Structures are given as structure tokens and as C-alpha cells.
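# step 3/5: fold
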Amino acid sequence: MQQGKLIIFSAPSGAGKTTIVHHLLGKIAQLAFSVSATTRAKRGNEVDGKDYYFISKEEFLHRIAKKEFVEFEEVYTDNFYGTLRSEIERLWKEGKHVIFDIDVEGGLHLKKKFEEHALAVFVQPPSLEVLIERLTSRATDSPEKLAERIEKAEKELKYVGKFDVILQNNDLQTACTQAETLVLDFLAK
């Protein structure tokens, strides 16, 4: 099978990676989004098979046992996320390069597995305080879940040096423009 490339955007929750990835999908036709599997409940208008593959914890664990994931993490207590091997293969068969919006540890696992075929980008928020402000203003999490996200973000910010590129997101439009250049340069190699 023809192997495409992988573009991995990782960051703590609230850093802007999802917005940047959506921007890139609208600008670069050869990219396709890797839909992750998760055991968490749907939020708002999320669509199964578009935003995530929503599966039960039992099904997720069964798929782990069958080695169907190229990477997976228990990102939050009892909330598993993972990338199905079949998802990457499906997109490569379509002649696309795969773009990921993925947690920090998952992003590093993908980079390690696919090495030079992958570009790992860490989206750096202006500060932890700004990140906390963004997460709080979302108003989508309970106080306990918010505290868990903030604690995880503090840990994830320490991984920044393990990525190929650090993309500063002090201004979203600037970050989106810089991300376009990074991705197009990588795809041209």
C-alpha cells in the first residue's frame, strides 16, 4: 500500500489545535482528518464517525487486545482515546495525507512509530493562565473535570521539547498561517 504522510497537531486542551487543524483541512486539499475512537460520551453536536468513533469501554479494550490501534491512551480516568490502524489505511488508500488533532502523549507515540513520515507539531499557548481562561470560558466541563484538564495541561506543557516544531499560538490567525507553511513544506519533501 502507498504510504502517505502524517501531520500531528498536539497540545493541551484549549491551546487551539482543533481550530488550526480545521483551518488546514479547509486550505490543503490533500489532507484528511483522522477520526479517533473514544469511550467518552458525545458532547453537544458531535457526530459519530465524523468527530470521533464513539465506542464502549469494553469494545475499546477488545480492540486493544486485537492490536487494532496504532496508539491509544487513557487520557482521563475511564476515557480512552486511540487511533485505529484501519483509519490511517483508509485515508492513505484515498491518496490523502493524514492530519491528527491528538493529545500530547498520543502524538509522541505516532511520531515514534512513523518517524520521518510524520511531522509532530506542538501548539504552544501564550501561557498556562491563558489556557486556564480558555478552558473555563468554554463552560463545557464540571469543576472536577476542569481541574483534571488543568492538571493534565501542566504536565503536557513539559513535553514541548520532544516535538519537531513548536507553533506559538499567541494570535490564532498568525498560527494558522504559520501552520499552513509548515505543513506545505513538509508535504513537499
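# step 4/5: annotate
The radius of gyration is 16 Å.
# step 5/5: archive (pending)
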